[in-house]
Design brief:
Blueprint: H1 3-7, E1 11-13, E2 21-23, H2 31-39, E3 45-47, E4 53-55, H3 65-70, E5 76-78, E6 86-88
The protein binds iron/sulfur cluster.
Length: about 90
Amino acid sequence: LRVEDKLYQNRYVVDSGRPHIKVRPHKWPSANLFALTSVCPAKCYELNDNGQVEITADGCMECGTCRILCEASGEIEWNYPRGGYGVLFKFG
Ligand code: SF4
């Protein structure tokens, strides 16, 4: 089974209107913030038409990569989803 096929078995419960990760408003992204558009395994980060980084946290696998790169600098705000929401991993 390929990794993509295994990831497909995960489920995600969206906490509507309460994203667990937020990007701080910025004019231009730092190098780390920009890097999130390519390193997030769930492809949650994208550049918008104005060159700013945006996040759609639906599908986030809580891997922590963006947290390590950008939380300490305050560029993103990172919390675990509320109980019952977020990714549901299927093992096996
Ligand atoms: Fe992407 Fe991982 Fe950050 Fe979730 S925790 S948004 S999967 S980099």
